[in-house]
Amino acid sequence: MEKLINSAFDFFAYALPGAFIILSLLILDKNNDTVQDYLNFAQNLKAGGATVLLAAGYVLGFVLTPLGRKMYRKFQKGGIFKKMNAWLEGGLEKVQYDFDDDTQPDKKMSISEKYILVREYSPLNFRHIESWHVYSLMSHNMAIANIAVCVFVVIRLAAYRPDHPWLWIFVLSGALIFFWLFLYSAAKFNIWSMNEQNAAIQALQLRLRTQQAPASSGSDSTHRQP
After folding, report:
1. Average pLDDT, whole number, for the chain?
2. C-alpha–C-alpha distance, residues 181 and 214, integer Å
3. For the chain, domain boundaries
4. Which terminal residue of the chain, N or C, has fewer Cβ atoms less than 10 Å from its own Cβ?
5. Is 107 helix (H, G, I), strand (E, B) or coil?
6. CA angle at 197 for the pair 204 and 201, rounded to the nearest 5°
7. How far is Cα of residue 91 from the mean position of the Cα atoms in its chain?
8. How close are the terminal C-alpha atoms of the chain, in Å?
9. Which residues of the chain fall below pLDDT 50?
């Protein structure tokens, strides 16, 4: 099961967005001018070719991940995301706890500490939180993929002067819309992940467990002494 989860993580977070970017290069081939041309390519793609495509997509998606993360964080507190959040009601507000408050450094826990606590004491919650993390990764990588589509479509329109420009203008408009939706989703899922992680620590009193563990082990060892 763990291997299956890891495989799904790699596929949706890295391989799928990366493969989408590689396939979008077909836009630059002037011989592909209709939807049927692209469907024919998909039908002729063999299993070996699909494996190579996913492998190359995985590498590309992995490399582009820091760029996608930086991109959505740059827009996260901007006016566009605030308007989108008011419309989509995605919940971009981070719930504050005393152990996650920057103004209380003596109580604040690091990300690594919170990660370890939930993974150790609440594995079911940890898997649920990881799913939000996967969605966030996939979303910001797919946002980059849609930017690539926009760039390739603009190049095609400028270089080839296609007979049906409105079709490509429609694709360009769709890619721009999906870019913002994916970027917003990346921020949304990341905040959901952090909120659920903090909520698990608070509701299950996980921090108290780490403080009580040394004391209980110490009392046991003392009691067993002859």
Report:
1. 84
2. 47
3. 2-208
4. C
5. coil
6. 25
7. 16
8. 46
9. 1-2, 4-5, 215-226
Contact 1, 124 (CB under 8 A): no
pLDDT for res 6: 58
| Residue linked to tokens 């081939």 | 29
Q: Please provide the size of the chain in residues.
A: 226
User: What is the rounded distance in angstroms from the CA atom of residue 173 to the CA atom of residue 167?
Assistant: 10
CA distance 191 to 189: 5
Cβ distance 69 to 140 under 8 Å? yes
Q: What whole-number distance in Å separates Cα of residue 95 and Cα of residue 196?
A: 9
DSSP secondary structure, 16-71, as one string? HHHHHHHHHGGGG-TT--SHHHHHHHHHH--HHHHHHHHHHHHHHHHHHHHHHHHH
Please, are residues 200 and 115 in contact by the beta-carbon 8 Å criterion? no
Q: Per the structure block, which two tokens stand in for 146?
A: 């849609």
